[in-house]
Specification:
The protein has 326 residues and is an alpha/beta fold. The chain has three domains: 72 residues, Winged helix-like DNA-binding domain superfamily/Winged helix DNA-binding domain (Arc Repressor Mutant, subunit A, Orthogonal Bundle); 124 residues, Periplasmic binding protein-like II (D-Maltodextrin-Binding Protein, domain 2); 112 residues, D-Maltodextrin-Binding Protein, domain 2 (3-Layer(aba) Sandwich). The protein is built from eleven helices and eleven strands. Strands 3, 4, 5, 6, 9, 10 and 11 form a seven-stranded mixed β-sheet that branches. Helix 1 crosses helix 2, helix 1 crosses helix 3 and helix 5 crosses helix 10. 30% of the residues are buried. InterPro entries: LysR_HTH_N (IPR000847), LysR_subst-bd (IPR005119), WH-like_DNA-bd_sf (IPR036388), WH_DNA-bd_sf (IPR036390).
């Protein structure tokens, strides 16, 4: 293969097909006619000298050569993006982009910081992906973003991992739950209570599971839900208890739609971290956003958690009378 015969246009088309897993979806995303896109991929395969995709049934999969080329295409795009940002920085022009990937629990704090950063730096484009722990680790492994905000990554990963903020996990229930007015609840009393759980791969679920497993308390999983918002509504509807980040239930506690149970051992103290591959050179824009995060985090986190304090105080004074457990 002679790399001089490759074009950036072909590489970007190929990358779109690889990421979309479909020629038709890639053509739609790139606003290209399907025959034009197919021709470019065919010509690229001829330059490489090996097939880039194989079709099994109605789906296409990358070959070994295709996977290698996809990694190279990502590297080329990243290098060109960093070059453009470096040139802008040398000219004293505040331009560039920041690609951020965050946990679902972080979306109650970090998007506001991203918004204020974008307002203060209008020349910098920002993009954000929200997902669970497994999704973010996959993206981190593929180096798809500039910065990641998640819990503790696997210890054997070669990454920079800097503590960002506390992420306390709490037990929430509907206001009518019999335990809503009790204090210092033994966690063993939650055995048999129906729980609404996050999906497998969620860091919140893994943490709560470790806590109850260590006590020998079996969890009764009533539902698995992949959205914190849906879990909150399900708990408010009386279908069970849940363990959620305190940051996610601020509004519901303030409105009295949920109550925080006073369970011994809770809140479970976790931390969010700012993570990126070790050796990765952050672009000027990404480095500026990282500095912004740390400069403004304390106020943002304190403001979010302070809003829930009135609800926690009011709970002890005006919780609804006990009724049958859901």
């Amino acid at each position: 293969m002679n790399p001089r015969h490759l074009t950036l246009h072909q590489l970007r088309i190929f990358r779109a097909v690889a990421e979309q897993g479909s020629f038709a979806r890639a053509a739609e995303a790139l606003h290209l006619a399907s025959p034009t896109l197919s021709l470019q991929v065919k010509q690229l395969a001829e330059v490489v000298g090996q097939p880039l995709f194989e079709q099994i049934g109605r789906r296409i999969y990358l070959t070994a050569a295709g996977r290698a080329l996809a990694e190279a295409a990502v590297d080329v795009d990243d290098r060109l993006r960093r070059l453009a940002e470096d040139m802008a920085a040398l000219q004293g022009v505040e331009k560039g982009s920041v690609r951020l990937a965050i946990l679902t629990t972080v979306k109650y704090v970090v998007p506001k910081l991203l918004g204020s950063f974008a307002a203060a730096h209008p020349g910098i484009e920002v993009a954000m992906v929200v997902g669970n722990r497994d999704t973010l680790l996959q993206r981190l492994g593929a180096n798809r973003d500039d910065l990641y905000i998640l819990g503790q990554p696997p210890q054997d990963w070669n990454v920079v991992c800097e503590p960002f903020a506390d992420n306390p996990l709490v037990v929430v229930a509907p206001p009518s739950h019999p335990l809503a007015r009790e204090r210092a609840i033994d966690p063993r009393r939650l055995a048999g209570e129906p729980f609404i759980l996050r999906e497998p791969g969620s860091g919140t679920r893994a943490t709560m599971q470790r806590f109850f497993d260590a006590l020998g308390v079996p969890l009764r999983a009533r539902l698995e839900v992949g959205s914190n918002e849906a879990i909150k509504q399900t708990v408010a509807g009386g279908l069970g208890l849940a363990v959620l980040s305190a940051h996610t239930v601020v509004a519901e506690l303030a409105l009295g739609e949920l109550v925080q149970l006073d369970v011994q051992g809770f809140p479970l103290l976790r931390q969010w971290h700012v993570v990126y591959p070790r050796g990765k050179r952050l672009s000027p824009a990404a480095a500026a956003f990282k500095d912004w995060l740390y400069a403004h985090r304390d106020q943002a986190v304190a403001t979010a958690l302070r809003r829930s304090a009135p609800a926690r105080r009011a709970r002890g004074r005006s919780a609804a009378p006990a009724s049958n457990a859901p």
